[in-house]
Write a structure and sequence with these properties.
Length: about 900
Amino acid sequence: MSASNKYKPTEHDGLKEDGTPDKRVNPEHGFGGQDREQVAELGRQGGKTQPDEIYKPSEHGGLKKDGTVDNPTYIDTAHLIRADSDVKYKVFRRGLAPTAGLHGLIGFEPMAEPDLLVNFDLAPAGQAFTASSINGIRGGRWKDRFRAKKRLQYKRNKSDRSDTNVLKQSKESSRPRHTPAEAESNSRHRSRTDKEPNSTSRPQQDRPVVSSIFSSNPLPVTKPDPTTTANTAPAAPTNAPLQDGSAFATMGLAPTLASHLVNTMKLKAPTSIQQTAIPQLISSDSDAFIQAETGSGKTLTYLLPIVHRILAATLKGDKLHRDSGCFAVVLAPTRELGRQIYTVLMQLLSHPSLHWLVPILILGGEKKKSEKARIRKGGNILVATPGRLADHLVNTSSLDVGYVKWLVLDEGDRLMDLGFEETLQQILTALNQRAQTQPKDQSSVALDLPERRITVLCSATMKPSVQKLGDMSLKDALYLKSMQKTQDNGDEDSSKGFQAPAQLKQAYIVVPAKLRLVSLASILRRAFVRKKENMKLIVFFSCADSVDFHYEVFGTQTDDELEQPEPSLSSDDEEDEENEEEDEESRSEKEPTSVAKRPSNSAKSKAPLIDSAVSLFKLHGSLAQHTRTATLNDFFHEKDAAVLFLQYDPPYSKEDYIHRIGRTARAGREGRAILFLMPGCEEGYPSDVLGDNRLARKLADEVLKKGFGDSKPSKVPKQSKSVDPAWKKDFMPKTSGQQWEQEAIEFHLNVERRVLASGDLANLARKAFQSHIRAYATHIASERGIFDIKQLHLGHLAKSFGLRERPGDIKVPIHGKTRHGSEAVPGNPRTGPGKRSLASMENGGEALYEQDEEERQEATRKMRKKMKEHMNIAAEFNFG
Ligand SMILES: Nc1ncnc2c1ncn2[C@@H]1O[C@H](COP(=O)(O)OP(=O)(O)OP(=O)(O)O)[C@@H](O)[C@H]1O
């Protein structure tokens, strides 16, 4: 036997070089379940190596054609192997005891040395993996057992003698995370990576980690809360149209408008907030603060009184026209919300008697030139994002805001979150300075319009920043809120802040890091099996890189997309722009958006890993504006089932959470929201951060069984031809009870293989992994006990991105100015340009905490702001 291919404990599962248990091996999963059957069967075969058991390189991903080990190598669904690239193996299996004791031996045999045994001895299912269980090797030839035992004994003794501290440290790190406080004290100075204490004996790059997703996962630390109301009878909707006889016609609205709402817009009755606020806004000239839950119809709540009063003024005075002045400005925090408000306004103004009222939409990211042209032509209601409006107020002389009678600040909390405070202040100052008593067009003296400008501030949540915005903009404001009764305790309790609509079913799943990807896949598969019809689903991620990675993993490009080169709208070609402007001029002024007319260039693909009928979309702030717009547009109009990929990581605050889940269960409709949390401190999120006992608790296993279970036909794509059927037959669990586990593993293996095979996908995975950690570090201070970056097991996390590299070896290429996801954390000296290694994050991102507190806070604030800018698009749009 040559020295190079001698058996080394570090090369197998079970023990580390120091002889202590390798924490990646989970006794509960080793040969658990059906593997026992397989083990028993092999034992019955007499332990002889059969000719057909010879491992054939070409037949599976284990060896390359040249006979060298395909590095890393999967051998068994429930085991890991660290393979040396220069050792040739053939598989052999020896007398496996037909007992339930799970002490089978499965080995790889270097061609040059038939006697070499690699031990996969595992403790019985359910028992702790202890040093003593190692001795219980059974099955096979007595010689093999004896040798293996001696080797292990030797290593253990050596390790005991040399470094007892290492053993202690290793034991600690193999424990599941417990309470936040316990975990905190354990991990303060501990690196949570796959790097073993004495692993410096071999170069890291040579040692990819190929572990089963079902091994060594931390266990949940909480039990289901008996006080939860999640599983009680379905709650009555709290944001639905009223069914108590309330009608638009009895709210003081002009009959034309009321009948238009019912007959054309098909809205049967007002929602609670509409019923409360519309009559007040029609009859009073006071400012107003409107607070109502997500999806309760706030847009119409402020638009209807404005349109009604302009209409009433027209009836009394001379006819108004587009040049009569801009009477109302509506500010939205994001372009998507701006576009959405504009669409509702267009629907409202589509009545023939209102066609003379002209709205204008001005948004960041669109062409200023065409916007200027629209402004020049005049309009009566302006919908805008703050930055672009401030720009036009300075640079577009034709924008006349002298006679603005309404200023609406929609989604006030978001406006502040996104850092628009200063811009809003500039806008308020400009409006005040330019205020006139009469409209520009003296012939249209609008007698019945408010004398002073009315400001309406809307928010679903009430927090200090909203109050600050209120102080800035409101004067003696009315406080208007929904009077809807909640199911449990009568009137909504405003002191609680804000709760999600009662009919929205919320749940959280405790998912270990390594099972995140398969759990996500499982939920998506299950969702589309159950509800085929135009089912739409949003997945929120914490960063753009993660969106890109998962979009690649789950999607494939459609043929259309491949054929159609993406039109570049950022071209400087003046001619193009002029032509486009001409086109726009010739279109009806009330056409919702010019982009909707363009051929689709949305970020869309098919999702065979979920269901071949499912379309996949991705959306984040790093995409070009025209792509964002087209994507949302296509998503809304998608007839087949559709998934929009955004974020599946927990949000940055309770308010973010509410906004996100509020995209569903709108206007009384049903909705479901699921949150992924990792075992350990994250489990405190529902009670400590959300303070909501309506979230049902589930475990990853339950979710995986549903998506990968027996009842479900296998959807693992045929691309798994690299997984040889013989290999599957030999090494995958066979009986039906664990079908889900087998399929989940196979799914994950395929992703890992694709990452290995494609440099581009591998780079995406690395960037996503890194950005995910950085995003994780930006949780607000009060939530840091829940999202404690020092508790993140980076090795396991890397696995959920299909990576087999050790965290410290993951190199993220940076090309000049990167997108936000890969940007260096501001103020972090370790993240300069060039090839960056995650080694700087081996201490669970501790670098972020080592900085001067003030500097760190500033860095995190900037990072969070940037992330929000990029990622909150989906938290704003109307998701029916
Ligand atoms: N009276 C009504 N009856 C039925 N549907 C309504 C009614 N009013 C509004 N809607 C619909 O409810 C949905 C949500 O409306 P809107 O976007 O105005 O809610 P919102 O309160 O602003 O929500 P968010 O704060 O989450 O943005 C829209 O699809 C809208 O068409």
